[in-house]
Amino acid sequence: MSQSPLQLKNILFLDIETVSLTENFSELPERLKDHWRRKASKLKNEGELEPEDLYFERAAIYAEFGKVICIGVGGFYEQDTKFRAKTLVNTDEKLLLLEFKNLLEEHTAKGNLILCAHNGREFDFPYLCRRMLINGIKLPAVLDITGKKPWEVMHIDTLEFWKFGDYKNYTSLDLLASVFDIPGSKSLMDGSEVNPNYYHQKNLSKIAEYCREDVVVLAQLYLKMNGRDILEEGSIYRV
């Protein structure tokens, strides 16, 4: 997984936060309601919730029933001695995705840009692609993997690296942060609180802060996985 300093500068670390497409199940278009009921019938449901209640708890993780509200991004600079992280936020998903696409296409790495996320291959990357297509946005080259050979896909997934070929278990970013003694973001909130904070508390700023901190943790984890020391707090800039 080792990267040269030049390649490290070309990596854009990212994390996304998603919510259910609507606050209430009743607001969904009728066709989507029927599809959700079928989806819900196949989901693990220990609380035996009705599909309408399960929607608020689980819909956000599926691109067909959820939407992106925040994208955290970050990158190294100044000979990899400093890291800058920021969030893109917008209640208008299409505008948010267009802003993110513009960021990708204007990145200084150009055709050498590499995207890194935790569980990115299973969640962040496909979710972004699906929501872009739903919003009528042409995929940027770095996300469009159609017809590409595996070694041509410029994506890094820290979860995939940690599995070492073992596909039986999921290991969270927070758990790996604990294992590697990296300060985490869970003091702010956790993923299950994103939907309530967005729809009930209307606290998009808290979600953005949580997302941005996950990007910092991700970058620090990447350094650890490459046998490097994590950055001191004074070398991390949040904008």
TrEMBL record:
Keywords: Exonuclease, Hydrolase, Nuclease. Coiled coil: none annotated. It holds the Pfam family DNA_pol_B_exo2. InterPro entries: 3'-5'_exonuclease_PolB-like (IPR019288), RNaseH-like_sf (IPR012337), RNaseH_sf (IPR036397). Residues 65-226 form the Predicted 3'-5' exonuclease PolB-like domain. One of its GO terms (molecular function) is nucleic acid binding. Signal peptide: none annotated. It comes from the Bacteria. The keyword Protein biosynthesis does not apply. The keyword Hydrolase applies. This is 3'-5' exonuclease. It comes from Lacihabitans soyangensis.
